[in-house]
Design a protein that fits this description.
Layout (H helix, E strand, L loop, with lengths): L1 E6 L3 H10 L5 E6 L5 H7 L3 E5 L1 E2 L2 E2 H10 L8 E5 L4 H7 L4 E4 L4 H11 L2
Parallel strand pairs: 1-2, 1-3, 3-6, 6-7
Antiparallel strand pairs: 4-5
């Protein structure tokens, strides 16, 4: 089973993410806080989904850290947010994809499955 790491500070959204992945091919690892590259390495996810706005920093900054590390740069990262300029933010942080809130669940899962191959 593939692992998806979801980093989201909003408890309700994190619960929804768990529900979305409930009957999927993914084991969900949830984190309500920003993790270090070392912690992400220990989890060894197949893909990471990060909310852009976290209580303890910007998800885009974490994305850039993940993509800059030789140990984690191969892990696909998806940024998601309701921010109007998410496409530019994702590009600047080297994200593999971005998903705007609100999103279509089917398309969301398709994007994740495609990137986690």
């Amino acid at each position: 089973m593939k692992k998806v790491l979801v980093i989201e500070n909003d408890a309700d959204t994190l619960a929804i993410m768990g529900f979305i992945f409930e009957n999927s091919e993914f084991e969900v690892i949830e984190s309500p806080i920003r993790l270090s590259v070392e912690e992400i390495t220990a989890i060894n996810p197949h893909i990471i989904v990060i909310d852009y706005l976290l209580d303890d920093g910007l998800g885009s900054k974490l994305c850039l850290e993940v993509k800059s590390s030789p140990v984690t740069k191969h892990i696909p990262v998806i940024l998601y947010s309701a921010s109007f300029n998410l496409e530019e933010i994702a590009k600047d942080s080297n994200a593999d994809a971005f998903i705007c809130k609100p999103f279509d669940i089917t398309k969301f899962l398709e994007t994740i499955s495609a990137l986690a191959l």
